[in-house]
Amino acid sequence: MKKHLFPRFNGGFFRIPFQVIAILALFLAWHSCTEPDGIGLNLIDDQAGYQMTDTVTIAAFFEKDDTIPTNIGYQNLLGLMHDPVFGKVRASIYTQFRLPSNDFSLGEEPVLDSIVLSLGYTGEYYGNLETFQTIRVYELLEHVPDADSLFNNQPLAVVERNIGHRILRPAPTDSTLIDTTFFAPHFTMRLSDWFGQKIINANGTEAFENVDNFLDYFKGIHITVADNFNEGGSVFNINMFSFYTTLRLYYHEAADTVPTPRQYNFYLSEFAKRLTFAEHFDFEGSHPLILEQLNNPGQLNDSLIFLKSLGGLRARLKLPYLDKLGEVDNVTINQAKLVIPIEEEFSDDTYFTARRLFLLQMSEDEELVALRDYSLGQTYFGGVYDESKKQYEFNITQHIQEVLSGQLENSDLVLIVSGSAENAQRVVLRGPGRTEKPMKLEIIYTLFD
User: Please, which residues bridge with residue 440 across strands?
Assistant: First the structure.
């Protein structure tokens, strides 16, 4: 178990005789703002006998996030964005396409007409959609790993020559007009004929006999975005299981006296391996505090806390003196709520505040585990951004009780953007060191004689 670099607190509020509390409360309500102690003495009494403290010491810093699995669910991300606070980020997609069955055939003697990649949007995006982006597609030189979890930091080798490109203004919420018919939001791009001919050439060979042979012949594609603009941009979500996400082969039969157009769609299935590859470019061009913190990992930063999805940035929270409360036998924790205000100046309509955060605990093995309170449901646990209060709240009552009872180690809490693998959202939080609207832990408790 990693030891915290904090001195142990030798006193404790709950050792003070109950008769003294009323006198202390009036004094400490003013005095604790300038001289807070480790546990917190800012008390509020009510007629029901409950008392509240919100000056429990929190130590916080942010750091580079760990790797995250990006092959779970139905979405992958695509796009390049220059965030004025968090710097540049690019999301690209590696994916297989599989045969629908063994002994697949396109007919007697297929002749290529064209091959087209189509990608269906989910409607979700982050950033500035007005920026045009150059989408490029490459053929893979190596297999997408055959693993249950595929992570955001796994680059794969590709053929140097691209097999297609398109300049695109992303339109994830706009219907697509084809001839006179509107279809669900998607975009298409024609790929190189020489690549299409490669698929045609597999007909009647071992490559079409089974899935494994086909994946050896055609390992998949890399869909990425050119780094050719300096501001704006967006990252948008692709529905990998959409009817519109397909590799579409147009062909006819050589024996046709009158060419009859045919087509075959290679769809993605749940068995197709795929992942989002995320690049943060060492946070080049980001806020100076981000670079300072990353150059001094582990250094406390209690003013501003920066969180970024796609394996970008996460926060660590320490409650160094919390275990001292567990030494008292006659205290019951009624509610423990972590309150996390945002720093509003860093959000706007384009770079909106992350919709939800998620709170986990770092285990002794440095693995992230869910808090017990999460098992009671997301509504109870919290984490949704409250637009009216400009803050997030987490109910961590059971977690605090388990720490105080000795069932859990008082190890670090880790705060991340929820759904980090499937969105490009971010947020700047007010840290526990702020004098106005700081991050705080509110504990409502009862003392028994």
Answer: 339
Query: What pLDDT shows up at residue 405?
Result: 86
pLDDT one-digit tens code per residue, 32-69: 333 334 444 344 455 456 788 888 899 999 999 989 99
Q: How many CB atoms lie within 10 A of CB 247?
A: 23
Question: What pLDDT, in 10s, does the model give residues 140-155?
Answer: 999 999 999 999 999 9
Do residues 172 and 124 touch, judged by C-beta distance below 8 A? yes
| Beta pairing partners, 445 | 51, 333
Q: Is 164 exposed, middle or buried (0-12, 13-18, 19+ CB in 10 A)?
A: buried
In the chain the first and final C-alpha atoms are separated, in Å, by 36
Average pLDDT on 409-428 reads 97
Residue with the two structure tokens 């500035």: 128
**pTM listed for this prediction:** 0.87
Three-state DSSP at 349 gives coil
How many CA atoms lie less than 13 Å away from 259 in the CB half-sphere? 11
Supply the Cα-derived Rg of the chain in whole angstroms.
28
CA atoms of 432 and 118, how far apart (whole Å):
47
In whole angstroms, what is the distance from residue 311 CA to residue 321 CA?
30
Contacts of 417 (CB under 8 A, 6+ apart): 307, 308, 309, 354, 356, 357, 358, 423, 425, 426, 427
**H or E element at residue 190:** strand 186-190
Share of the chain above pLDDT 70, in %: 88
Helix-strand-coil split of the chain, %, nearest 5: 15, 35, 45
Q: How many helices (H) and strands (E) does the chain have?
A: 6, 25
At 341, the amino acid letter reads P
Predicted confidence at residue 262, as pLDDT, reads 95
CB proximity list for 173: less than 8 A, separation 6 or greater: 121, 123, 125, 185
Dihedral sign, CA of 254, 257, 258, 260?
negative
Say which residues have a Cβ less than 8 Å from residue 365's Cβ, sequence separation at least 6. none
Query: Which amino acid is present at 56?
Result: V
Could you read off the pLDDT of 197-213 as tens digits, one per residue? 999 999 999 999 999 99
Q: List, in order, residues 6 or more apart from 289 with CB less than 8 Å away.
A: 301, 303, 304, 306
Q: Which among 191, 193, 226, 219 has a CA at the least distance from the CA of 119? A: 191
Long-range contacts for 143-149 (Cβ within 8 Å, ≥24 apart)? 143/215, 143/219, 143/220, 143/273, 144/94, 144/95, 144/96, 144/219, 144/220, 144/273, 144/274, 144/275, 145/273, 146/273, 147/273, 149/69, 149/71, 149/72
Report residue 275 as tokens: 């992942």
pLDDT at residue number 402: 92
Q: Nearest Cα to 115, choosing from 182, 188, 183?
A: 188
Q: Which two tokens stand for residue 308?
A: 């970024």
